[in-house]
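Whiteboard transcription, Tuesday session. T.W. wrote the structure tokens on the left side:
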């Protein structure tokens, strides 16, 4: 029987959150699929520790310590947080571009942004076959629905892997439009997709993506499913265009920022709890 003392005790000492499961995978391969997009193939026994799911935007959180820390995966995150917070690995989010159950492998496509800036971009650039990397996940939330009549997918370079994965699962008779913003024309890819899905690249300033979206005919919302994931400021503008101005019902839209200009991911994630980081009003 539960006593008042038990209840008090529970209220004073809430159960500690269980540590997130870490999958430790080995770097098996590295392919430059465009000048600024690097595919890493990661696999091994740790594959079974991944939460495999069917979302086409499934993502993992890579745990990337400073190489000078001397840490080896898996990491005791609770102990590091308590005793050596300065050694905590950075967490960086990447889409699982492809799951290969048979060979226990995943592909992640990493944008090599900036000039060696970015812990994850640098890690990917320098990764060598045999290196180990720990990760949590996978999470995910979007999948093209079979009953969808028309798709609208809007993304930038960071969302290109999720868009490519989504297009590959669509029915052959699916229709729709894909808008992808890139800084550089030479990073365009051939994307396998249904014949009825048009692909438009928007090259140059990010504002051009918002302008292109503004010019779309978005009056018929029936059977429409939208995926919209770009840089934070641009995401806010696109939310205005798609949901506020065009009136697309919110449940039909998957929308969130994938990164934020001038913010490392740690700050970008932390700001989601502050007004500047919120996409919704
Ligand atoms: C669900 C989800 C899935 C994602 N999937 C992918 C994916 O498959 N591939 C991928 O490359 N990215 C993906 N991203 C974005 C990626 O997590 C961020 O770009 C992340 O900040 C990269 O970490 P970093 O250590 O290289 O740079 P950080 O250390 O986080 O940032 C350093 C600087 O680089 C800038 N920066 C960060 N990302 C970019 C960028 N893409 N372009 C230009 N400047 C940038 C920042 O504003 C900051 O000034 C995803 C994000 C989310 C939320």
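and on the right, the sequence the group agreed on:
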């Amino acid at each position: 029987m539960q006593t008042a003392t038990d209840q008090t005790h529970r209220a004073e000492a809430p159960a500690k959150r269980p540590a997130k499961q870490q999958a430790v995978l080995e770097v098996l391969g590295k392919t430059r699929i465009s000048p600024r997009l690097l595919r890493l193939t990661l696999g091994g026994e740790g594959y079974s520790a991944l939460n495999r799911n069917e979302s086409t935007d499934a993502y993992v959180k890579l745990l990337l310590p400073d190489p000078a820390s001397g840490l080896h995966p898996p990491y005791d995150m609770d102990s590091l947080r308590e005793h050596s917070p300065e050694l905590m690995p950075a967490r960086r989010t990447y889409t699982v571009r492809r799951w290969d159950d048979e060979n226990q492998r995943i592909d992640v496509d990493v944008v090599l942004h900036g000039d060696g800036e970015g812990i994850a971009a640098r890690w990917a650039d320098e990764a060598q076959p045999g290196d180990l990397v720990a990760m949590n996940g996978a999470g995910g939330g979007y999948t093209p629905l079979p009953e969808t009549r028309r798709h609208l997918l809007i993304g930038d370079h960071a969302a290109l892997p999720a868009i490519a994965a989504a297009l590959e699962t669509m029915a052959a008779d699916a229709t729709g439009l894909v808008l992808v913003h890139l800084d550089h024309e030479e990073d365009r890819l051939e994307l396998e997709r249904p014949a009825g899905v048009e692909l438009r690249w928007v090259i140059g300033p990010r504002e051009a993506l918002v302008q292109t979206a503004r010019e779309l005919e978005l009056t018929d919302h029936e059977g429409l499913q939208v995926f919209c994931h770009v840089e934070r400021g641009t995401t806010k503008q696109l939310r205005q265009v798609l949901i506020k101005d065009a009136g697309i019902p919110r449940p039909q839209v998957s929308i969130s920022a994938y990164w934020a200009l001038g913010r490392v991911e740690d700050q970008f994630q932390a700001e989601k709890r502050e007004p500047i980081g919120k996409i919704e009003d």
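Someone added at the bottom: The first helix runs from residue 4 to 12.
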